[in-house]
Design a protein that fits this description.
The chain is mostly helical. The protein contains two helices and no strands. About 90% of the residues lie in helices and about 0% in strands. The model has no long low-confidence stretch (mean pLDDT about 95).
């Protein structure tokens, strides 16, 4: 007689597929967070470079001014440049802030995907444990049946009619 099949096998397979799907979603979320981190790092580096360039230009202009090498026209151009450089640095600072928001959202998405995966794994594990109990019960019943048959054979072997 074939042994009975686990009745919740389709549920177990369904939950395993859900775990696989959630694992893939977590992988996507991790990659999205890593990409957001990289974008933020690039935005910060771009802003730092612009600030350093502006700082060097300001220092050179201050030296030239101190030596009396600048004309009124040079000072006017310098002021216009300063306005443009400040506006560029503000835009780059805003880009960094947007990138930081993107990172925060990506981290939230990753955390949510981790929670979802853990929940789906717990759901699957409930059925896995039930299947283990089912298989263990079958094994115990088979062992008991074998022991009973052996006992009966031993008892029956001593009585002949």
């Amino acid at each position: 007689m074939p042994s009975p099949k686990y009745p919740l096998k389709p549920l177990l397979e369904h939950r395993e597929r859900k775990v696989d799907d959630a694992t893939a979603e977590l992988g996507d979320a991790v990659r999205a967070r890593e990409a957001a981190d990289a974008a933020r790092a690039r935005a910060e580096a771009t802003r730092r470079d612009a600030e350093e360039r502006a700082s060097h230009v300001r220092a050179e202009e201050a030296e030239r001014l101190g030596r009396g090498e600048l004309s009124v026209a040079d000072l006017a151009r310098g002021q216009a440049w300063e306005i443009g450089a400040s506006a560029q640095i503000r835009r780059l600072t805003e880009a960094v802030e947007v990138a930081e928001q993107d990172v925060a959202e990506a981290r939230d998405g990753e955390a949510s995907a981790r929670v979802d995966l853990a929940r789906k794994m717990a759901d699957r594990d409930v059925v896995v444990k039930d299947e283990a109990r089912f298989v263990d019960g079958l094994r115990k019943r088979a062992l008991a049946a074998e022991e009973e048959a052996a006992e009966e054979a031993r008892r029956g072997g001593g009585r002949r009619s």
